[in-house]
Amino acid sequence: MYGMLLESVQYFVQQEYGDEIWQKALVMAECKYAVFNTHQVYPDHIMSNIASALAKLTSKSYDSFMNFFGHCFVRFFSNYGYDATIKATGRNFTDFLESVDNIHSQFRLSYPKMKSPSMYLTKVDRNGCILVYRSKRMGFTHYLMGQLDQIATEIYNLELECQVLSTETGEVDGKTIVIVTLRLNFDNTHYILAKQVKEEAHLRTISKLPPFNCDLLLVLFPFAILFDPAMSIVAIGEKLTQVAEGGHKLLGQPVSKYFRLRRPKGINFTWKNCFYLRSVMFEIEVLRTEFTKVHTDNKELLVEKVENLSDSIEVDGKNISPYASRRDSQPGVKNILLKGQMLYLTDVIGIIFLCCPVVNDIGELPDQGLYLNDMNPHGLAKELVLAGWQNNSKLELMFDKAEQRASELETNLSLLEVWKKRGDDLLYSMIPKPVAEKLRAGNSPLSTCQTFDSVSVMFCELVGFNSSTVEDAMELVSTMNAVFSCFDSLMDTFNLYKVETVGQIYMSVCGAPEETPLHARNVCDASLCMTRHVKQLQIPSGTKVDVRIGVHSGPVVAGVVGIKVPRYCFFGDTVNTASRMQSTSSPGMVHISDSTKKLLPKDKYIIRNRGVVKLKGKGDMETYWIFEDDLTDGID
After folding, report:
1. What is the pLDDT at residue 508?
2. Which stretches make up the Guanylate cyclase domain (predicted)?
């Protein structure tokens, strides 16, 4: 579906439910798009997923939200002036319902990838009508009902009540479609009265005129096709007879053998559809290859081959439809596209397709084996062909440029999403996501400053090597990259925030900016895991690397500092004490303070009293070594 449908949903959901609900719905619907482009095509399931997500976030049902989305679309497309098209279709709501397929056909020029449904009326009375809705999309019945209700209310000032009579599935061109029969109840008195007045005036007029033979229609419309309820050809226009090189051979043959339905899309070429869609413009393709099979000089041989080929022919080892040659550019072979309207003739109990060929410019006439004098004697068919010849090259150039720009826009939008994600990842690597969102909202950096009553701070230092030469320095950088990359992967696992690395020292915090009562336990688990992973790392140079870690818990103040390369920093005596705990630790050991020890569960770790240690600037403090519980064997 096109982005305009999803734009309408986003606009009115944010307006009526708030941006917070909308953002939650996008997350629950697993929608990767933050914004929608009007002319970009998106997967159909996005709207359904959003409706399901909103139903879970609120007390309403999925169907009610799909109905709401239908209302939203009608309210939204008025901004583009599309409501004027609906108003121009007819004086009454029923006139609009009979013209929906024509409206969709016109909008295909602006939205060529549109997958529009098909609708027709089977019964019309003073209290409403019965509408048959056919679509390739499943689950959009209530979306249609919302659209119809909004159009009836907003444009025609009617109260509409929709009732689903039946729902079934069918198949068109190998694809499954849903067929829904709806009863629409509304005041249809004006339409019925207008129809009665028109019929009475028509009867008064024809009563003064003599009847004429239906052959006259085949002269006025030289490409017309008359067929009966069995879908067999009864008669064809004189020009179509010339194209077929003898129309008598077509009489009594199935219409679908020589003609193929192009539009309306999504329906089968049946009597029922032709009868109920009489108010809709049809496009039918003349299959020239079938005429060629009948009138070739070597007729008997070709017919024999056609019978053996059944429904396909082989070209370069591939089976293709015999209709694939319809684009053949050889003169007089290209298929003819006919466009017109179905008319039911009660006298002969048949339907006649009143049409004319679709020719874009004079250059297409030889390809189709046609001439200007073959065009309908009435109307502007000849003038349009000549005008199209002059303007077609300019239109083609404009269309190519529009297609190129649309393709570039889609590419740029995809790149925008990629670079936005990269930018977010880079930002969140420097500043925690909750803090970054505050700054994005326009808050001052000072507003990010916050006091945390209890967090755990960990300092880890790499030991066991020095860098007295350039080669040693390069080896140190390579080793630090390997070790610190390993530590980075552990931060999310244990819910720690990496603050910074200075030289050979790695600093992380738990309990800020996301507060948790398990901060001491998380830091100790991460510290013990870091000591274990360092011993397992395989350094290319074979250097033995170890770490010494210090942990302390207490209050801190945190906030964003700096303009260039801003960082989320921590301040306070807790940070200083944790640094001193690390500097007085030993290689391969985790050194914790008494305040951290008090926050740990008693039976999860092995904690050994180290005794009183003198810390610079702090004096004497009682500290501890901490070990994993599975290391009890071998500890005295």
Report:
1. 92
2. 456-582
